[in-house]
Amino acid sequence: MKKDELADTLAGMPGWTYEAGADRIEKTFSCQSFLTSIAFVKNVASIAEDVNHHPEILIQYDKVTLRLRTHDEDKVTDKDLSLATAAEKAANETDGV
Ligand SMILES: C[C@H](O)[C@H](O)[C@H]1CNC2=NC(N)=NC(=O)C2=N1
């Protein structure tokens, strides 16, 4: 995906940023507790398995960072944006995120 196209898309996705050095998109979600973080991660993991596209996940107590890139293509693709959108839905549907 072209950089300007990606920037336009991310402008409509609050909290998601493009990390130029790592060539990935990421967002840190704030959760109410550690167990809420785990519940959210389980929901994201289930989606990731369904679509066979897997984020890097960093859990820091009450924060969960999702990092997305398409390793197979060595860049950010629609698969990443689609998983990011699905993760937003999971966040809305997980109590305490
Ligand atoms: C063979 C299989 O489709 C690939 O290994 C998938 C699995 N999950 C993946 N996840 C992510 N984030 N990027 C990939 O390129 C990727 N590739």
Automatic annotation (TrEMBL):
The keyword Transcription does not apply. InterPro entries: PCD_sf, Pterin_deHydtase. GO terms for biological process: tetrahydrobiopterin biosynthetic process. The keyword Lyase applies. Keywords: Lyase. Its EC number is 4.2.1.96. It comes from the Bacteria. One of its GO terms (molecular function) is 4-alpha-hydroxytetrahydrobiopterin dehydratase activity. Pfam families: Pterin_4a. It catalyses: (4aS,6R)-4a-hydroxy-L-erythro-5,6,7,8-tetrahydrobiopterin = (6R)-L-erythro-6,7-dihydrobiopterin + H2O. NCBIfam families: PRK00823.1-2. Belongs to the pterin-4-alpha-carbinolamine dehydratase family. This is 4a-hydroxytetrahydrobiopterin dehydratase. The lineage of its organism: Bacteria, Bacillati, Bacillota, Bacilli, Bacillales.
